[in-house]
Amino acid sequence: MTPGRYKREDADEQELIDGVLAGRRDDYADLVRRHYPRILGLCVSMLGDASEAEDAAQETFLKAYRSLADFEGKSSFGTWLHRIASNRCLDALRRRTRRGEESLDALLETEGPRVRRLVAEPARGGDPSGDADLVRRVLDRLTPEHRLILTLRELQGLDYKELMEALDCSMDAVKSRLRRARAAFLMLARHISGSSGV
Amino acid sequence: MDHDLMKERLGEFLDGEMSPEEGRAFSGHLAACAECRALRAEWERLRGVFFAAGPAPAAEETERFVARVMARLPEPEAAGAPSSLPEFRWLVPALGLSFAALALSFAPLLEQPEDPPSALLLEDSRSPEVARWMSSPEAETPDEALGFAAEER
Known about the structure:
The structure holds two protein chains of two kinds. Chain A has nine helices and no strands. Chain A is mostly helical. The longest helix of chain A is centred in the last third of the chain and has 23 residues, at 171-193. The model of chain A is unreliable at 1-6 (pLDDT under 50). Residues 121-125 and 148-153 of chain B have low confidence and may be disordered. The longest helix of chain B has 17 residues, at 34-50. Classes of the chains: A mainly alpha, B mainly alpha. At the A-B interface, helix 2, helix 3, helix 6, helix 7 and helix 9 of A face helix 4 and helix 5 of B.
């Protein structure tokens, strides 16, 4: 799965949407097939747990189907799906109880050297699944909102206009939120690595 | 742009969201500023670790997911799923207004005839004048029968 920018709706996709609205349910299978990898990627990055991410992705497509008549085409269908998935993931993260959530100090105590290596050096030939778990545990330290905008921008490759549509906010808000999210993430990474950065 | 503003807008530059003129100015600053270059390198390294794309799902996994979603889709009539008649929604209120207008237009035809003046009088309150009016062939109106003069304008 390679991050990339969503293109504006092409004629094929608009035909599929029109087909679903006209009662051709099988056209929706094609839409799901097209967008599943990206939506799953977003949910995995946000939620960490594969099973929970799959559930969130399913609910995203079900919600989109039920609301398809309300899709006005102001954004691309993919961006619209991102918006639905983002809200679902945010709700799930906010519902998670803070009890049992691992503190950063506890994480550093148990996995300090690995986490520091992860932050200080790019993962090369390491343990991908183990690193993925560490990545998730580090990203868990971010607020859901910071984690979301960073995921949408860095992993999903949404440009600023698409971010505006996915997050339903102004361009200034997108820039401001990204700045704050990146600053928070840098502060976290530097705290882990014990460096003061630049 | 000064250095602090450059640092603040590094993200926009990395995201390719600056105007061409701003981008050129920023590139020039980067070439001359070790601090901003180090910040850029730090961010790109972290981004590569923490936001790297995972492997795409296999085709079989995708098809299983599609099948699960399709099996859970609501029936169009039951769950308000995309209707085949969204373009006729306007018809319902339009029909309602038309029916209301039609009903109002028939209202005058359904009016009951006015009660005769005699019906408005109580049986036991009938005065001799009223009795005279009721039996008088000359009086055309109750006023005439009761001797009221017409008010002249």
